[in-house]
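User: What would this chain look like folded?
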Amino acid sequence: MIPTLLRPATAGTSGQGLLPVLALSLLVLGLAGCGPRDERSTLERIREDGVVRVGFANEAPYGFTDTATGRVTGEAPEIARVILADMGVEDMDGVQTEFGSLIPGLNAGRFDIVAAGMYILPDRCEQVAFSNPTYGIGEALVVPAGNPKALHSYEDIRDNEDATIGVVVGAIQWDYALDMDIPENRIERFPDHTSAVAGVRSGRVDAYAGTALTVQRIIDRDETGEIERADPFENPVIDGEEVRGYGAFAFRQEDQDMVAEFNARLADFIGSEEHLELVRDFGFTEEELPGDVTAEELCARGES
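Assistant: Here's the prediction, encoded as structure tokens.
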């Protein structure tokens, strides 16, 4: 049955007087289909609801799904559980996505925090708000067994015209490769580290560049003997400084109250015995502690 207000005009009428009524009716129907808007801040909502959604990229040891248990774990999710529980939020839902989709997904509201060990970089600071870092780390390469092209640095890849390097979409290693003057046509981008390592195994690329812990974890779990970690390896030196990445949690820019409270609790936790015990199984030690560097300082490094 057609609602009375939306029935067509009867014979002998022009229908012009019906247009305002139709417009009003459509507005009423549209409003009726909208649920109540949640005016709470993210911090208020997760506290009151008792649950937070975290985005991760399934990259061990930073944030990944334990296939045996289905639990979202890794350095970042486990730290997040401790800090958020201290803030009164007991439940955490994981949302897995590709690394390059983490920031867009966060800003689109798919999740409330990025818990993926994401490096604090100036261009990312323009898009999201970072917590202070939870670790600092250098780089490494996965290469075929025997390292046939003798690749021990980004410079080795740059100087060998036949050498190619694989990186994950959205990861800092793309920038490192460009900064070290490796031509773009010799840099292959993969959606995740699993496909990048598969690229090394198949010969699609000659090396995969990742963080030292990611690479070591890959090698430790390899049962094929087809790959190895490039040893020795020289970290890239950019603008006169050896690179060291600092990983942290990312939040939406408008969630500054949440960042401030998260940081306050993080300051008392990072470097404690509880923290070191928590992350030890993921390969983190005192050597990976971030020191006194802050997100503000790291974000400012991009300012001219």
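The two ends are 66 Å apart (CA to CA). If you want, I can go into more detail on any region.
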